Amino acid sequence: MAEQKPYRLPTMVTPERYELTLAPDLSNWTFTGEEKVLVNVHEPVREIVLNAAELDLSAVSLRAADGKVLLASARLDAENEQATLSFAETVPAGRHELQIRFSGILNDKLHGFYRSTYKDENGLEKRLASTQFESTDARRAFPCWDEPAFKAVYQVTLIVDQELTAISNARVVRETALPESGKKRVVFADTIKMSTYLVSFIVGEFEGTEPVMAGKAPLRVCAVPGKKHLSGFAVDIGKASLEHFSRYYGIPYPGDKLDLIAIPDFASGAMENLGAITFRETALLVDREKATRTELERVADVVSHENAHMWFGDLVTMKWWNGLWLNEAFATFMEMLAVDAWKPEWRRWDSFTVSRAAAMQVDGLKSTRPIEFPVERPEEAAGMFDVLTYEKGASVLRMLEQYLGDEAFRDGIRLYLKRHAYGNAETTDLWDALEESTKQPARSLMDTWIFQAGYPLISVEKNGASIRLTQQMFRYLQDGSDRDRQWYVPIFLRAGTKAGVVEKNILLTQREQHIDLEDAVDWVVVNAGGHGFYRVRYSQDLLEALKGGLQSRLAAVERFSLLNDTWAATQAGFTSLSDYLALIELLPDENDVNVWTTVIGSSHYLQRILDDMQCLYLARKLRELFAPAVARLGWAPRKGESELESQLRGDLIAALGTVAEDKVCQQRARELFAQYETAPDSIDRNLVPALVGIVAHTGTPQDYEKFYNKFKTAKTPQDETRYLFALANFRVPALIERTLNLTVNGEVRTQNAPYLMRGVLLNKHASEKAWTFMKSHWEEMLRHYPDNAIPRMCEGIIGLVGRGLEADAREFFSRHPVKQGAKQIEQHLERLRIAVTCKERWRDLVET
Ligand SMILES: [Zn+2]
Predict the structure, then answer these.
(1) Is 163 a catalytic residue?
(2) What pairing do the DSSP bridges indicate for beta strands 30-41 and 165-168?
(3) Which of 57, 124, 478, 690 is deepest in the core (most CB within 10 A)?
(4) In the prediction, which pLDDT does 405 show?
């Protein structure tokens, strides 16, 4: 028998149905509650153990199946977040009703049952309460079996002030006024059988849109008053994606209604509570006429992602937190499918290559981890909400889908969901379903990607009609370890031969494999279509052949891979920086926004680590690259151009005016920004972020004041965050100090302050000052910021390439370990090590 871990609950008693009544008091930020839980006692017990944290429990009793009432006392274990209910006599096996009264606080840490505030149109502070239970914070709101495998039905009742709106997972059954208290009782229907982390209750002055039917479920978007006009876009993608998924999965939406709710204070992007999905405002509310394409795409992504979870996560749930990737990688994969189907002109899978590249960056570290790894304590799950779970997970699923074929893959998913509906599953169950429906070795292929960290570098050579492929692990810093790692690599290949273009899909299962074609090979693209989670290194002759036909032989996504893999090779030290710069010089005709994203990203990286003289040289090189591209596109949209082209124009102008330091561009951007202030509609919306970025980069105290006021009085969540985060990019020392103070003086919501701090750390002119500031306010930040934001804020340390700073950072984090993100801190430190190594390696880079 497995040893019982102290933080895991015993299984002698399991919940079947909760009747939960909660009465939040927003004026005192407290709540009281009562629950009746129908439990199954599988063998006689004297004690019942369940989870509770920061709760006071009173009046615990159990009404046995025979009507007898047994009283119990409760003992709380703060360390393991458990309550032990001790009965004076033995509780017999059977189906009984457990009753508990309890009370707690509406906390300010954006988890459990928590508080949020906002100002109404008259500037008065308003209050609301919301929940965020994933991973293990339902126990802060009511005593419960707070592990994903203890699925149960929930019937929620909320007692709230009469003028407030109450929302929970299921539809409202009835509302009754309670005249003596001035309150009302809102009774909700039973939910489906589900895990505790998906329960939700929200109370405040919410306004909802008129319901639209998505399949058989009414769908609304809810927000605090005055924001209804920002809801239309989310309603559209909400309905479209929910209907898309019911078709894809072949299963109707499992809830009885769906509310998408914007919460002013929110720790992550959104949370997939069944039927009551909560969002941070920027991820749901948007002005579809004024927002940029990327801002709209973000809303479409997040809404689709959460809707995908209604099946993947809510209907079928991982057994334990080690299987979190099953939830998150799938929701991310499905989000792309739905958005791609809804707006094909956005070419969502192409831009996903940028996210894939971000995952490959972390996964090329020694301190990476496998997608799935053993999770012992539930709080270890907190460290799994990262780019490896979401983006690497989604990438390897996409690779598998492309290898198996999209219909065969979908059939496997349908089988999996049908088989485990209302239950829990593990990774192996997914492979069972996929192998059964596709008759292909999904398990042995995927095990190398799910349980093994890192990814391969595929080297390609040719000899006549033969192509030789070899795999070895890719790593930025090579220390000779883990060399034997191998993967089952789906190779998607396209070759130009004397007889024409040939395509082949094979599975590379050895260290080395030969592919023999009929005719001599001129050129070859490995990872055709860009779906593979690996890098490619071509022999010199093959590379030259591709460079000679960048636009004719490679699709945009393949040019992205070529650029991105070469940049990674440059950072890893097996391609020289001058070779990389020579490659990007071939791009002036390039029109793909993602290709340019990788170039612009590498430019900022170089600017952060090179010294001042080198930066002058770099800026000149970059002007030669960006200026002709901007000239080609012009400063104003051309008739009939795509949204992606408009976005590209903005991105290139932003780069020309900041990292390339083009004075003419800077001047023009400032003039256009002034024009935008008086006549906003005269400027293309996709250009606005570039203008704001350049004004901040070259900003004066007057500009700062203006941006600060725009942040304070913004009319949309997008404008608010745009001007707020622009404050991190000013370079005047006194202004940097003002921004740093904003991170702790209460003016910026704790959902945003850590990311503002990260922005200042990444500003080359501010990083040292920011680091000193962060160290001296560390305890304060830990106390106020949401736990999940701390490791993300610390990503800013990758900019600390100055003398002695790396050692200082290592020393600081060894004395101040971040318990919910130890792995991420280790990764940030390794990325810093890589940057310092590159700085050293490139110290001779200056030409005149
Ligand atoms: Zn998710």
Answers:
(1) no
(2) unpaired
(3) 690
(4) 95
